Description:
By secondary structure, the chain is mainly α. The chain has helices at 18-35, 40-60, 65-82, 86-103, 106-121, 125-141, 145-162, 168-185, 188-205, 210-222, 228-231, 234-250, 254-269, 288-292, 312-330, 335-351, 357-372, 376-384, 392-408, 412-419, 434-452, 456-472, 476-488, 495-512, 515-529, 536-552, 555-571, 575-590, 594-600; strands at 276-283, 296-299, 302-307. It is built from 29 helices and 3 strands. A 3-stranded antiparallel sheet has the order 1-3-2.
Amino acid sequence: MLPHDNMxxxxxxPNVPLHATLLQLADEYVAAAYGGNIGDELYHSQLSTAMGxxxxxxxxxxxxxxxxxxxxxxxxxxxxNETENQVEAEEILSKGIMLCDRCKLLNLKYGMYxxxxxxxxxxxxxxxxxRVDQLIGETETASNVVWAYSFRFLRISLxxxxxxxxxxxxxxxxxxxxLQMAMKFRHVAVQIMxxxxxxxxxxxxxxxDGVDMAQRALAAARTFQTHPxxxxxxxxxxxxxxxxxxxxxxxxxxxxxxxxxxxxxxxxESLKEGYFSIxxxxxxxxxxxxxxxxxxxxxxxCTFLKFAWLPVAQLxxxxxxxxxxxxxxxxxxxTKTVHFLNQGLRLTEYHCGPANQVTNLLRLxxxxxxxxxNDWDQAAKELSQTKADGDDFTKALRLLLQAxxxxxxxxxxxxxxxxxxxxxxFSVGEEDGGVRDVQTLGTLNRVLILQRLxxxxxxxxxxxxxxxxxxxxxxxLYFSAFHVAKAYLQPSSAIxxxxxxxxxxxxxxxxxxxxxxxxxxxxxxxxxxxxxxxGDQAMKSVQVSSVLGKRARNRMWMAVADEMYAKTLEMSGxxxxxxxxxxxxxxxxxxxxxxxxxxxxxxxF
Length: 605
């Protein structure tokens, strides 16, 4: 067979080692897979081919130690990020670590240990954190500041991701040491990062002073707000504003929440990257990126530690989520809430798909927004599009919303079945967290249904389960809601105890300026103490109830309040105004679900 005209003779082929060609091909396939919008099948095919090239190099060629270690780290990184071959990835890393030990390749060794710890954490977080603690000791003994920082931040990250609230003290200790090191060496970016992480730990703690401590940590980070390091870290500025917004909402500071929301939105508009790097203030070798597996990088001769946050689209969607929550915090019936959340949904569904976790969070929050606006049909429709799986918090919140919609539309027994489901069952002694808050709300709602169905003893038992949590919760709304439920369980003859309980409820609700809860409490007070009574105090009570009902824009409570107001006016000899109010009450009640209307007939508190 004759060679084709355009084929080169064997002796004229370029003298390029085959292993170098395979490594170059691997780089090109990875770049193509990560470089643009391609289909899933092609994406996985290109990455699979890249890993095949790297495996072939390791199996068929004898490389110098540094190159072999780099290939092992590259291959293991792809396996960890793109496959479920955990055992094979661990084997590749273990052999690589032994090679690095023999040849004293410190950066490559620690880069492999960093990846191995992250891999171990997916199956055994405690073992991974213990291993990182050992590496921290090793690097600090060797005065290797760069890797000491790297492993301490990894330990903090694993603690935040996999640890519980009881790990807060350990995390704060880690951060305190990082801050001491950073102040000693004047590493400003590290100080900003550590202070910001301190704020996160304080907010997660659930402690009564957690918000105050978080604000102090944020104030420490903001002392560098005019420093060049802060100017180079838009991602951290966004995170600081997000945390500031959470603090403001926790303290019901609407003005501060608005300011933080605006600042966060402005920063997000110009954001170009989700990942960021902080300067460690030390000189770096030019190949530190390759030797560390991308954990460290060299910029203008200095060592930087890389942090991966979220892709820009997801960060912007999270911004819309927080903006929506902030708008609902200012005014539960504000239409801006739905606008922000829908904007976030459009963004995540376009960039991330409908099954993305952020998409699911946005839909759950949108369901909650429709619930606060009493649009139960739309709430049910939105909830039906959420995923039933997810973490414990997501499952519990989804079930709570499902039960709330049933309860609000008058389907009490189906709602009770949902509240009794395991994800919403409150168990005394379990660890605190967002799940516990959802379970607490579910239990309070269950108490109201049980009492309505005549199951008084069971209702009392349920309320006692959440008493300590509600009374000690840093959010005063739990305190107030607990006292509303407690008042509901009092016999009608217990006028003074009920009055004392409701006084506590209204005082707590006033500190939060929650119009909806104040509306409920004042309607209960009017019904309990001024029903059928004429006088200035009775008139003031029903007037306040009517005003609060309109502020809360809750059709049912507007109808109830206006009906009580109308009756009081009739008894006071003012039938004309009473007729107008009754007409308004009937119009509002007509918009309430029929099943709920029937439950409200002859209802007394």
